[in-house]
Specification:
single chain, about 240 residues, 12 helices, globular, transmembrane
Length: about 240
């Protein structure tokens, strides 16, 4: 049954133009910034690297991921299908994990075409060599970042029956958790004392750490902890519905 929910969530995304538009927009925005705009073009870089892509992608995900997940629970509540879902032999955790797994599959499909960026940069490099290990590490970090945004967005979707409200709350929450702690750490009263520890609470800190190509256990624990905490809140929320 959990597989059925995962399949339903996956099919929901590609059953309308919304899913394809989100996919095209993600690739289009990244393509324009990375290959057309002189200020951020990879082609004008002196090094064969995808650093600019991994700097840009989180900002695009702040909008794309909430757009993918905004219907997860909001539509179920609005249409009334959640009542039917609760009659199935499923626990709240199975429902949440099913929906979350479906979103993770969508995100995997979303990221897969960007591998062409690596192939392109490698083909255009002077020696035909790129930092493969660093790029793999960065992709792991980016996928974990997207997974965290997905968990947060699904959690926000469980609080409302309005998809637009879900999108706005999710986007704002992801933005705050991504750069909010870094901004707070720069307040003069924290500088030199607590600034480093405050930065460690933010997603940006751990994403940059793992994007250097070194997969640190502390970063993995952080991402997994945020995901589990978000899904736990989701389970508690839908259990009260």
């Amino acid at each position: 049954m959990m597989y059925s929910i995962c399949k339903k969530e996956f099919n929901r995304f590609f059953s309308s133009l919304t899913g394809y538009i989100a996919l095209v927009l993600f690739l289009l925005v990244c393509g324009v910034f990375l290959f057309l705009l002189p200020e951020s073009s990879l082609l004008d870089n002196n090094y064969a690297t995808l650093d600019r892509f991994f700097e840009l992608a989180p900002w695009v995900f702040i909008f794309i991921v909430p757009a993918i997940t905004m219907h997860s629970f909001a539509d179920e509540f609005k249409v009334g299908t959640f009542e039917i879902l609760k009659t199935k032999p499923l626990t709240a955790w199975q429902i949440v994990w099913g929906k979350y797994a479906g979103v993770l599959l969508v995100l995997l499909i979303l990221l897969t075409p960007t591998i062409l960026y690596s192939i392109t940069i490698k083909a255009l490099s002077a020696q035909g060599v790129i930092d493969t290990g660093g790029i793999i590490g960065s992709y792991i970090g980016l996928y974990l970042l997207a997974a965290v945004f997905a968990a947060i967005s699904i959690c926000c979707s469980a609080f409302t029956n309005n998809a637009v409200v879900s999108f706005l709350i999710s986007g704002f929450t992801c933005l705050i958790l991504y750069i909010g702690f870094n901004a707070i750490s720069k307040i003069p009263v924290f500088t030199g004392y607590l600034d480093y520890y405050i930065q460690m609470l933010g997603i940006d800190f751990h994403y940059k750490s793992i994007s250097r190509g070194v997969v640190d256990t502390r970063d993995i624990i952080y991402f997994v902890s945020v995901i589990l905490a978000s899904l736990f809140i989701t389970v508690k929320t839908i259990s009260k519905k």
